Amino acid sequence: MNRPIVVFDLDGTLVDTAPDLLDSLNHSLLAGGAAMADANGIRQFVGHGARVMIARAYAAQKRMLEPGEHDRLFNLFLDHYGGNIPGQSQPYPGVPAALTRLAVAGYRLAVCTNKTEGFSKRLLEGLGLAGQFSAICGSDTFAFRKPDPRHLVETIAKAGGDAGQAVMVGDSQTDIDTAKAAGIPVVAVDFGYTDRHVREFGPSRIISHFDELTVEMCENLLQAAQA
User: Fold this and answer.
1) Cis bond before residue 91 (omega within 30° of 0)
2) 18-82 has which CATH code?
3) Which residue of 7, 11, 17, 89 has the fewest C-beta atoms within 10 A of its own C-beta?
4) Using only C-alpha atoms, what is the Rg of the chain?
5) pLDDT per position as a tens digit, 77-134
6) d(C-alpha 163, C-alpha 153), whole Å
7) What pLDDT is attached to residue 63?
8) What is the CATH number of domain 5-16+89-226?
9) 100 φ/ψ sector (left φ>0, alpha ψ -120 to 50, else beta)
10) Over 70: is that where the pLDDT of 65 sits?
11) pLDDT digits over 47-60, tens only?
12) Dihedral over Cα of 35, 56, 44, 151: its sign
């Protein structure tokens, strides 16, 4: 039997990147003459990448954003963010131990994120976590991205895994909808980047700390999915 696999979202799930995303977003907003976002507001903007983050910030301020200006601010964001990786970003409590626990139990590990692949790899390398993953797939790895279920399914394949032996871990409706569309059980963390509680999106399980992501939980989810 193929080794089971756990696939993780990145921002708001494995790593608290909010301080750096906020800094880069505000760098762009200021360049566009818009008001800065605050630490609480960042949660409603994250989830589909920097371009969408900027658009959501402008929409929240009821400001028009012309396509050319959107491109300019997006490039400013990327330059600022890329120049500061890993910055203030840190793994959430319990993440390194959870990854080791699953790997020792024979699980493959992978990342499926709407952050670009290059930034994702640089971030995880900077935090000393990249070596744990069989694949790190971002918004530009394939011709599609979450919530398209193919992003998750192809990440699993790239990691050498089997979608029939997979569990997803994420923090948002995007992650939960992606996993459901792929027919894969999904564990939601309740401390990530969403302005609505993850229970509203119907994940298979909810955890509040990575200590709760046990091998037994993953095994139970896989068994239930195959029943």
Assistant:
1) no
2) 1.10.150.240
3) 89
4) 17
5) 999 999 999 999 999 999 999 999 999 999 999 999 999 999 999 999 999 999 999 9
6) 6
7) 93
8) 3.40.50.1000
9) alpha
10) yes
11) 667 888 899 899 98
12) negative
Q: How do beta strands 108-112 and 5-8 pair?
A: parallel
Q: Domain map of the chain by residue range?
A: 5-16+89-226, 18-82
pLDDT at 194: 85
Tokens, residue 118:
């290059």
Which pair of structure tokens corresponds to residue 80?
């600022």
Beta bridge partners of 220: none
Distance, in Å, from the CA atom of 128 to the CA atom of 153, rounded to the nearest integer, reads 26
Paired strand residues for 205 = 187
Q: Which amino acid is at 157?
A: A
Domains 5-16+89-226 and 18-82 share a fold: no
Q: What pLDDT was estimated at residue 1?
A: 55
Name the token pair of 32. Answer: 């566009």
Joined tokens for residue 68: 């050319």
Q: Known catalytic residues?
A: 9
